[in-house]
Amino acid sequence: MKTILIIEDERDLAELVAFNLEKEGYQAVTAFDGASGLEAARTRNPDLIILDLMLPGVMGIDVCKMLKKSEKTATIPVIMLTARGEEIDRVVGFEVGADDYVVKPFSARELLLRVKAVLRRSLPDRPEGKILSIGPVTIDTARHQVVVAGEEVILTTTEFKLLLNLAERLGRVQSRDLLLKNVWGYNYVGDTRTVDTHVTRLRTKLGPAGDLIRTVRGFGYKMEEP
């Protein structure tokens, strides 16, 4: 049974989300502020976190930053909840490591679809394992590990799948729409800024090796040998 942590200060909404998740066979854990949410993430080790942007005390953005900086919680996927639909909110959420976002008000069906899609992306789908080496970057698919110039780089599940998708198609241009389909697994209704933001974050984490990911203006991205 997958455990999902809901960090949401609106208790009625948190309990409604928990109810719908449990109907689908998940185990739901709730926290009503940022500090208790962080503690629950560290002690319960959930499979996914649903995190509200606006929280009392520690804001959702800061909670996400702290989760992604800790080795223990860095790989837990996060779906951000926001009461606003402006692009800046989505971009900031992605920049701090969120895997997806849902704008309030939302339907239970929409949230469940997002939860299933994110969890599906987090499953190890290459049990046979293989190692890809491109310049200073080494990708171990069995261990879901990335090493750059001898140092391990901690990536979110989405970042890992994005890097792997580009590496497996070395030298081939991938359109933003195709990357959305292959990495995110469902239609983002043309919101290709999602891809751009994740590529920017991935390049930053890879350091100088991020230059291996090239932008093909007006189309998408490709990864090339140095």
What can you tell me about this protein's structure?
The structure is a single chain. By secondary structure, this protein is of the alpha/beta class. It has 2 domains: 3-122, Response regulator (Rossmann fold, 3-Layer(aba) Sandwich), CATH 3.40.50.2300; 131-223, Arc Repressor Mutant, subunit A (Orthogonal Bundle). It is 41% helix and 22% strand. It contains 8 helices and 12 strands. The chain has helices at residues 11-23, 34-44, 60-69, 87-95, 108-122, 157-168, 176-184, 193-206; strands at 3-7, 27-31, 48-52, 78-82, 100-103, 131-134, 137-140, 145-148, 151-153, 174-175, 213-216, 220-223. The strands form 3 sheets. A 5-stranded parallel beta sheet has the order 2-1-3-4-5, with helices on both faces. Strand 6 (131-134) and strand 7 (137-140) form a beta hairpin.
- Largest β sheet strand count, sense and barrel closure: 5 strands, parallel
* CATH H-level superfamily of the largest domain: Response regulator
Broad shape:
globular
* Individual helix count: 8
Number of strands: 12
- The largest sheet has its strands arranged as 2-1-3-4-5
How much of the residues is beta strand, in percent? 15-25%
CATH fold label of the largest domain: Rossmann fold
Helix/strand layout:
Layout: E1 3-7, H1 11-23, E2 27-31, H2 34-44, E3 48-52, H3 60-69, E4 78-82, H4 87-95, E5 100-103, H5 108-122, E6 131-134, E7 137-140, E8 145-148, E9 151-153, H6 157-168, E10 174-175, H7 176-184, H8 193-206, E11 213-216, E12 220-223
Parallel strand pairs: 1-2, 1-3, 3-4, 4-5
Antiparallel strand pairs: 6-7, 7-8, 8-9, 10-12, 11-12
